[in-house]
Structure formats: structure tokens, C-alpha cells
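Question thread 4412

I'm putting together a teaching handout and wanted feedback from people who do this every day. The idea is simple: show students a protein as raw sequence, then show them the C-alpha cells that encode its fold, then repeat with a second protein so they can compare. Below is the first pair exactly as I plan to print it.
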Amino acid sequence: MRMNRRRFLSISAAMLATPAWAGVHSWQGRALGADVSLKIRGARGASVAVLAQMRALLSEVEQLFSLYDPSSAVVRLNNEGVLDNPPERFTALLADADRAHDLTDGLFDPSVQPLWRALAGDGDVAPARSLVGWNRVQWDASRIQLGAGQALTFNGIAQGFATDLVTEHLSASGLTDVLVNIGEYRAIGGTWRLGISDPQHGQLGMRTLRRGAIATSSPSAMALGDEGHILHPKAHPHWSTVSVEADNATLADCLSTALCLAPRQMIEQVRTTPRVKRITLVDFEGNLTSL
């Protein structure tokens, strides 16, 4: 099952004024199973070079984490149960996922892919639930080994990871006024006004982003059988929408996913974590709470 939502990577960059200024330069393509567009405002030579670099970064992320690309690293791992000499960025994401798993008491779990497959294909859900367990995934810099029957999905964190890669590359290139959006947002400079929307209740609030990231998740944004698309073998959604503001998009992405399944007490504890700036909750009646 494909997710039909469109993701846009949009970059607005303040570059030095030069006679070579030529307006907006853009590219459209696909990444991580969705449509992506890139736009750069600036001098033609610099803009074209940045676009080429961004396309290369997105292609690398696709080759690592896309479930739609049969040659990607995660598909090969899922098919074979083992991945030797994994790329450095792959193990970097595993480390981020591991920290998110610990921080949310196991609610963030990339090993839910068998459950996703069962629900998407009208399969037997009970055996699929028994395969979920991040603690059964063994990994280090030289080898990743899954438990029997396991499979991974990074759909709850890879978009944030890609957003961070792109943003940090733009910052290193000297750009100082940037907004990147690959399903999750991260900003450098500027004053960016972003809305918080819920699938059932519409737009409920606005946030101003100048530096840092914001990610929003809603279980009902996509249905899998009788369940939303945010899955766990034991937990069910407590919230209609969760939005997390954090120092980087990887952290905001995985937390907004997992905290949809979390009770208020756990969310209040996560909010005290360094690098987490704000958590916004929307309950099933449409009430908004900001922590």
C-alpha cells in the first residue's frame, strides 16, 4: 500500500546579491515514495549547484531507507534478515531510532513493518504482532541482524533524517535563511509561520519557526484496516494529532509519531528532555493543549 500524500521539500534561501541573479530555480521528482519539489531563490550558478547537491542527498536517502525501492538497504535487510557493512548513515539512523525507543518506553519501534504488511494486505495480524520487538534487532557498525520474521520501516523517522541532512548541508554552504519541508519542517533564520492541522478538526493553531524543527503526526491521516497508520502491537492512539518542536527534525519526527500512542504523563516527561522545545496535543474532541 502506498501513501498518497504529497511531500514537498521547499527551500527559500537568502544569497548574496549578484549580477547573475536569475530568480527561482526548481526541480521536481520523487523521494521516499512521495512527490518532492525543490526551489532555490538566488544567483543562477549557486542555485543550480545547490539543487544538484540536494538531488544527490535525496537519492542517497532513497537508496538507504525507501520501502518502494527494491534495491534499497532497508529492503535488502528485510528480505535477507542481515545487512553486512551497513552504510554509516544507516547506522546513524539506527542509533537515533534506538534513542527514541528508549525515550518513549518502546512506543517508537521500527520493527512494526510485519504488522503494517498484515493490516495493509488483510493478513493474519496476531502472528505479525508477535514479530515486533526492537530489542530483537542486533546491530553494530559492521552488521545488522534481524530476528526471525522481522522487518523494519523507518517511515516514522526517515523524513526527519532527510530534512536534517538537507538543512545542514545548506547551512554548511553558507545559506542563512532557509525552510526545508520533507513532511517535517526545519528552519534556519527567517520567520516562518506554520499551521497545525488535524485531519478531523482542521487548522487549530499557528507556530512561528525561526530555528529548529517541527513535525506533526495524526494516526487517522491514513487508515490500515480498522486502525490508523501509526502502529504498535500493544498501544493504541491517545491523541488525534501530536506536533513536536525540537532542535532537529529527526527527533521531532520520531517523537511526534510515538507520542500519538502515549499517555499524558509520559508526554510531560518527554517534554523535559533537552532539545525538545514544545509538544502540542490535539485530543479526539479537537481540544488543543501546548506543553
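The second pair follows. I'd like the answer to focus on this one:
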Amino acid sequence: MTEIIENDRQSAKEKFILYWGDMGSQWGVNRSVAQIHALLYLSTHPLNAEQISEELGIARSNVSNSLKELVNWRLIQRVPVAGDRREHFVAETDVWEMALLITKGRKQREIDPAIKAIDICVNEAESEPGINPVVRERMRNMQDFLQTADRWHEQMLAIPKSKLATLMKMGDKVLNLLKIGGKKTK
């Protein structure tokens, strides 16, 4: 189930899982991880690893590793199922919560280390003799950008989901209000 082949025999659910897997791989997420996430997101009941493996045609060991990664991201969780000793999993189904979890995880894994690395470089550049002032200034510009983006991220996380959704849906209205672009109203 790893190839996206347009045909009428594929269900919308199968296509969704394939496309989610493809998008995940474009975003740097293992395709199997993304497909398992999609399957659990769409599932109306908890699934165990064997069921996931069978439905997606993914090796059981790959499923186990992918489930661990998704649990670490907090996008899925283990749930007990009465009468079954196997681990079962469900996905977060609130798309806003899911987006926030992904954003927080990516920030921790990608942005925070970048901020630390750039801070080190800027600090070293301040005392390094012979460094071109233009290079130093470009480093400071990157540092400032990352710090600003980090503060903005923290501010966005503090906004309640319902208000954040409203803000995003406003689109051009916000830009127009701030007079920085968007459609002009009369």
C-alpha cells in the first residue's frame, strides 16, 4: 500500500492514507509512520499492531518502530481493550490539537537546536578577530529572526485553539486591518 496509484477500486480511506504517507515523506517523516498515523486517525476503534500491519501491508517490526515514534510525538496513545492483552492504539482526532503537537515536536527537534547553534556562532563571531563585519551582521540577523519566530510560536501556543482557528480563518481581514496587504475593501 505504499504506492499511490489512481484507480477506481481504491477507497477514499485508502487514498487518504496513501496521500498522508506521501505528504509525510515530503515533510521529512517516514512514510510508514505517516500512513500508520493516518490509519489510526481515521479508525473508529482502537487497533493493535497486527491489525495495522495487515491493513497497511507493512512489516510488523516497522509498525512497532513507527508506533513508538508516534507515541513519542504524543499523536497516538496506548489504550486498553477489554479481553485483549495486546496493546491497542488510538490517534488524537482533534486536528487543532494534532497540529499543535506536531508544531511543538518539530520546534523541539529542529528549531530549538538551530537557535542554540546560531547563538554559539554569534557569540564566537563577536570575539573572533578578523571576521568580516558583514558575516557577523548576517549571523545576528539570523539569530534575531529565529528568536522572533520562537517568541511568535510561544505567543500562538498561548492562544486558545478556538481563537486561533478564528484568527486563521480571518485571513485577508487581519491583513486589511493591519493595512499590510490583502484585499482592499471599500
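Top answer:
Good format. For the second protein you could add a caption like this: DSSP finds eight helices and three strands in the chain. The CA atoms of residues 97 and 161 lie 8 Å apart.
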